[in-house]
Specification:
This protein is α+β, with helices and mostly antiparallel strands. It has helices at 5-28, 35-60, 91-95, 167-177, 190-198, 212-224, 238-241, 249-260; strands at 65-68, 72-74, 81-89, 102-109, 112-120, 125-130, 134-137, 140-141, 154-156, 183-185, 204-207, 228-230, 244-247. The protein has two domains: 5-141, Fructose-1,6-Bisphosphatase, Chain A, domain 1; 150-260, 3-Layer(aba) Sandwich (D-Maltodextrin-Binding Protein, domain 2), CATH 3.40.190.80. The longest helix is centred in the N-terminal third of the chain and has 26 residues, at 35-60. It is globular, with a radius of gyration of 18 Å. Its EC number is 3.1.3.25.
């Protein structure tokens, strides 16, 4: 099993940032008396992880562009390539001491995601994929699930909190989907939801109003694992619109019709 130089750079960066986050995660429980104190601590942990990733990725590939959750976008001498980075997806889980969060790194080339790494540092599970080279979790090849019946399948999504205006739409999605499937999960980290679809743990995933760094790495993971992934609006663009629906091939048509309400 050999990977490209770029994918090795991505994995090395994810592991280094992951060590920093795991160390900080162990401290979070001591700060739960004050949510503001814990929140400030997690913000610092997030920023520190992004600094590590930026140092590793831009240090190795200084001509590539950069876009990340905390630091925003920066151009590069090579306008065709950029890193798309989320240093801590699942911040609320991290803040509450729940070990379900991840580092997400994608490489975009000419508008296409060509490589992705999603690292669950708390469980030491490294999901990675490269266009044309398959999808992997640590040293194991991964594939989407083989289920073919909706009623036996489980799906993941995110639920809008904090008064977001898209809550009614999500509740309508759930009302259509729940009678047709075996379960819906909401674990609070979109990148890991996509990684779990690629690994066959979930049969599908959908969500709206995501950011590019939430979903970029997952796009290539799901595709290289044999899954189908599209924008909810078939005429749209996943990264630009921030919405996605994905599943294995046998389930995709039925599942996507339910989500699209067609």
């Amino acid at each position: 099993m050999s990977f490209s130089a770029n994918l090795n750079i991505m994995m090395k960066a994810a592991r280094k940032a992951g060590r920093s986050l795991v160390k900080d995660f162990r401290e979070v429980e001591n700060l739960q008396v004050s949510m503001k104190g814990a929140g400030d601590f997690v913000s610092r942990a997030d920023i520190a992880a992004e600094a590590i990733l930026k140092e590793e990725l831009r240090g190795a590939r200084p001509t590539y562009g950069w876009i990340a959750e905390e630091g925003g976008a920066e151009g590069g001498e090579d306008p065709t390539r950029r890193w798309i980075v989320d240093p801590l997806d699942g911040t609320t889980n991290f803040l509450h001491g729940l070990p379900h969060w991840a580092i997400s790194i994608a490489l975009e080339h000419k508008g296409q995601i060509v490589a992705g790494v999603i690292y669950d540092a708390a469980k030491d599970e490294m999901f990675m994929a490269e266009k044309g080279a398959g999808a992997w979790m640590n040293d194991q090849r991964i594939r989407v699930s083989g289920r073919i019946r909706m009623i036996e399948s489980i799906y993941a999504t995110g639920l809008p909190f904090g008064g977001r205006s898209d809550l009614p739409e999500t509740l309508k999605d759930l009302a259509r989907l729940m009678p047709a499937c075996a379960g819906v999960r909401r674990w609070g980290a979109a990148s890991l939801d996509l990684a779990y679809v690629a690994a066959g743990r979930y049969d599908g995933f959908w969500e709206r109003r995501l950011k590019p760094w939430d979903i970029a790495a997952g796009i290539v993971l799901v595709r290289e694992a044999g899954g189908m992934i599209e924008p909810i609006n078939p005429e749209g663009n996943i990264l630009a619109d921030g919405e996605v629906v994905c599943a294995n091939e046998p389930l995709f048509e039925k599942f996507s019709k339910i989500i699209r309400d067609v």
